[in-house]
Amino acid sequence: ASEEADGSNEIEVTFAAAAANKDGKIAVVTVDTLAASATFDTKGVYSGSTDAAELSTKKMLGANYNMAAYGADLNGDGKVLEWFEQADAFEAACAGKTADEVSGLEADGYGVEEVQKAGCTIGITDFVAAVVKAAK
Question: Are 30 and 16 in contact (CB under 8 A)?
Answer without folding.
Answer: yes
